[in-house]
Amino acid sequence: MLLFLSIDLGFFGANILKFFDGGWLPLLMGSLLFLLMSTWRKGQDMVRAALGKSEIPLLPFLRQLQHDTIHRVAGTAVFMSSNRHAAPPAMVHMLQHTMTLHERVILLSVRTEESPYVTAAERMEVENIFAEFYRVTPTGKPPAMPVD
């Protein structure tokens, strides 16, 4: 760390003299970009936390759909889902506003791997979780999630 710090301090010392001759512009732009990105990240965390509080457990939700009178339309709907045990918010929102649902529903989870190639057996698992509701998830052990 001291090696890199000594190199960076050398560059900083050489360029600080140019600050008032236009060197302030890249620093201002970098600061604004940092502010924008950190605000975006905080907003994403807030939205994720709000959605996490309002999640509905999936299986009781699907059982309730059996008893409700909702109109089923032809076709297949695919909803992205990061939580295997909760109903996707987009599906819940669509049901609340239109009272319709496609005849086949796929809940899709995606996970990126560190490896450039994944064998066919490790790519995905398709599971029928309820009548015409399918869950497509990556197989294999998920990577350890960082704890905030």
Shape: elongated
Helical stretch tally: 5
Largest β sheet strand count, sense and barrel closure: 4 strands, mixed
Say how many strands there are: 4
Poorly predicted ranges (pLDDT <50, ≥5 residues)? 143-148
Helix content: 40-55%
- The string of secondary-structure elements, in order, is HHHEHEHEE
User: Could you give the distance between the termini?
Assistant: 25 Å
Overall pLDDT level: 86
Give the spatial strand order of the biggest sheet.
1-2-4-3
Domain count: the total is: 2
Which band does the percent of strand residues land in?
Answer: 15-25%
How large is the radius of gyration?
24 Å
| Structural class assignment | alpha/beta
What is the compact description of this entry?
Helix content is 46%, strand content 20%. It is of the alpha/beta class. It has 2 domains: 51 residues; 80 residues, no CATH class.
Walk me through the structure:
A hairpin with a 2-residue loop joins β3 and β4. The chain has helices at residues 2-15, 24-53, 58-67, 89-98, 120-123, and strands at residues 71-80, 100-108, 125-130, 133-137. The chain has 5 helices and 4 strands; from the N terminus they run αααβαβαββ. It has 2 domains: 2-52; 58-137, no CATH class. 5% of the residues are buried. By secondary structure, the chain is α/β, with parallel strands linked by helices. It has a 4-stranded mixed sheet with strand order 1-2-4-3.
